[in-house]
Amino acid sequence: MEQQKALQKKKVSYREQVKHTIKTQQAQAFEYIKVKKQTMYSLKLLTTLFSSTTRKYKRMRNKLRLERIENIKAATFDNHSVPDRVYKQFKPFFSDAQLTTLYKTVLNSLKTFDLDAEYQMDAIVYGMESLVKALKRYHRNAGEPVYNIYAYLNRTLLHIGFNAEFYDDIYAYTDAESFRKILS
């Protein structure tokens, strides 16, 4: 009997020990889960913080890139090869590249004539005005088309340069037939 009581005490104590172990393990498990949840929550906060910062940075970088692109699209620079008077007057009608090429054509046309700087500038403006007027007549369906603006300007400036050198009047624009007769 005493042996049975001793065995029962051992069994009871074993059961109590198991119950106690289960309680401590549960407490440890709950503590572990609590810590894990806090860690996961902290990590989520951290990643959210990083991702929102990254998104903000990307948004700002994108905005700056778009602003730079808009600035590039709207960029204007002075045309250094064309005089200001010619550039300002004829910019509405021609692109920068066209103005530069037209001005070079003008200089090549007028280099055969001995004109002072003021006459030369007046001849350039008058020739360019003649080109714009010819284009205006064509677009109003009142004149013939200008197939090559550079050739038209070259020919016009040959007339103007001839009149300026031989008649001292750039505005005495001769007709093409009499000009060809004089040249041949």
Average pLDDT number? 78
Helix count, DSSP H or I runs of 4 or more residues: 6
Q: Which regions contain 5 or more consecutive residues with pLDDT less than 50?
A: none
**Percent in helix:** over 70%
What is the N-to-C order of secondary-structure elements (H for helix, E for strand)? HHHHHH
| Strand content range | under 5%
The largest pleated sheet is described as: none
Termini, distance in Å? 151 Å
The general outline is rod-shaped
Structural class: mainly alpha
Query: Could you tell me the number of beta strands?
Result: 0
Rg from Cα: 46 Å
Structure overview:
With 184 residues, the protein is mainly alpha-helical. It is 78% helix and 0% strand. The protein is built from six helices and no strands. The protein has helices at 2-73, 84-90, 96-110, 117-139, 149-167, 176-183. α3 packs parallel to α5.
Structural descriptors:
rod-shaped; mainly alpha
SSE layout and pairings?
Elements: H1 2-73, H2 84-90, H3 96-110, H4 117-139, H5 149-167, H6 176-183
Helix pairs in contact: 3-5, 4-5
